[in-house]
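Long-time lurker, finally posting.

We've been working with TetR/AcrR family transcriptional regulator (Streptomyces violaceorubidus) and I want a structural starting point before designing mutants. I don't trust myself to interpret raw outputs, so I'm hoping someone here can both generate the structure tokens and explain anything notable. Sequence follows.
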Amino acid sequence: MTTATKTETEDPTARRILDAALEQFTVFGLRRSSMDDVAKRAGVSRVTVYRRFGTKDTLVEQTLLRENSRFFQRLDQAVAALPTMEERVVEGFVVALRHTRAHPLFGGLLRLEPEVVLPYLTVHGGSSLAATVDYLTAHLRRAQQAEGRPGDDPRPVAELMVRVAVSFLLNPASCIEMEDEDQARAFARRYLAPLLTA
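Top reply, 14 upvotes:
Generated this for you. Predicted structure of TetR/AcrR family transcriptional regulator:
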């Protein structure tokens, strides 16, 4: 369970602040949003926001982590019916690209404020990367057991897959047209799925 998920579950005030932050950042972006703006939107004092989250960077990070957690639930639903881990990896890659581009916060910030959001996805994105790698590692480990694959640690493969997906999101210019879902599937089938047995 991520910190954002714990916070949301255990603290209704923090949940309200995160809801307000999501709305504020989606409508106005990160650069034009302050802790005061989030406090007003949440109907709490500025002090309350600072007590719960400390800094704007932490609030942004926790908002992104919570959206990550929600995305994992949608991704699970999208690939649950597929019979093999290989098929789930291929379709999961396509769903992840589609969802991130269409998401009002993730996609909106990448389009409108790439220079502002970039640190949260790279040098300051350790918690988000770790949460995503943990999520995929758990799925790969369960697939190893269910499908009788070798019991090697799947974390390096999970991290490599996540880093590849993030790189396409941050810099979509490529010889592969990732906006075309058939091409994205073909890429994932050829280059990512074989990592499962590497």
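Before you design anything, note these points.
Residues 30 and 116 are 7 Å apart (CA to CA).
The chain has a mean pLDDT of 86.
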